Structure formats: C-alpha cells, structure tokens
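Lab notebook, bench 4. We co-purified these components, and the gel suggests they stay together. Before we commit to crystallization screens, I want a quick structural picture of the whole thing.
Request: model the full complex, all chains together.
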Amino acid sequence: DGGITQSPKYLFRKEGQNVTLSCEQNLNHDAMYWYRQDPGQGLRLIYYSQIVNDFQKGDIAEGYSVSREKKESFPLTVTSAQKNPTAFYLCASSPRQGHQAFFGQGTRLTVV
Amino acid sequence: AQSVTQLGSHVSVSEGALVLLRCNYSSSVPPYLFWYVQYPNQGLQLLLKYTTGATLVKGINGFEAEFKKSETSFHLTKPSAHMSDAAEYFCAVSEGSGGYNKLIFGAGTRLAVHP
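Here is the predicted assembly.
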C-alpha cells in the first residue's frame, strides 16, 4: 500500500544526545515536510523539501537538521541544541502540483 | 502572511446533536482550505478540502464545510454527532508558490461527544 512510514513510533532520548527520526514515502511525491505538534499549539513547520538535495527552514528550525538524499526519504535529526525536544513529530508529503498533504502516523519523542 | 484561527479549543456535544467547528483565515490571495482530523497518537487524516468551484464541500464521515469569502470563514459541520467523531480537528490554509504545499494550521479544536 502507498503511504508514509514514520519510525519509531515512540523514542526516548537522554539530554545532550542527538536522535534521528525516520520518514519514508512511496507515493512518489516531490515535497516532504516535518511538523512539530505540542498541546494547544497546532502544528508548526520545522523543515520542508521540494526536491532531492534541497530543503528550507520552516518556522521553528533551530535545533533541528534534515537531509534529502533520496526522493523517498526525509530524516529529521533532533540535536542537543534543541532546548525542549519533547513533542509529537509528524512527517508529511504532497505532490508537486497538488495542495493536499498526506501524513505519517507520527513519532512521540520524550527526553528523559 | 496567512493565518488560521479556530474558535474554541474544546467543543462538547451530545450524540445526535449538530457539530459546528469554527475556522477563520486570513489570506491575501484566494486560499486553499482544509480540515483534518486526528485521533489520539495518530497522524492527520484529510476530512475535506476547498480549492476552487463549489463553496459547499462535502467530506468523509458526513462532514461538510462552506467557504464564505466575505466572512473569511470555513466552518465545519455535521448534522448528527456520533461517538466515533470524538477527536481533534485542525483547519489549515495552503500557502506557497511553485506548486508545493506549505500548510498553515490552526491550534485545533478537541471535540467531545457524550451519550
């Protein structure tokens, strides 16, 4: 089945550690996105990518990094510079000429 | 810049009652508008979208929304609530050019349905 796969579903990180969240899509979509969700704040855009080897910062990029080496994959690294990383992270993709975004099931990151 | 305001962070209705979730947007150009639903610890699922054409849009699970340009609103309705409708609902507006879709989300409305 076509879709977006995020892994892992739950992730625990010690303070000071970097951690990478995986996002893979088999929808052949050009654009991919990472959102952060906190209670009562909706979804905020971290990074987005329109094509391979290119990406742009969203509204809250500080403390995060991404890569887009393949069309299907858009991993997000939460670095130790992110002061408050505990949140629910959602990956999405959309066709180049489309306006509907498709979402993965999310990764819940907790700092312990 | 575009923005979305959802009035009411929590809405509670009785089973069988009308559901009305409010969304207002700001945009300097004709917007693309969306409603998504999220169940606990899940991703977002598209309920319906407005792009062009008919201003009354029908979606899945009996939901519909009406685009009112004069009021800059895109309120979501369902005539009769079901227990399974309990979830969080997000309104979003599309911003961007060159074909990609940067979505701006509202803060969300949590819908509770009681017997």
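The CA atoms of residues 35 and 44 of chain A lie 5 Å apart. Worth comparing against the SEC data before the next meeting. The two ends of chain A are 35 Å apart (CA to CA).
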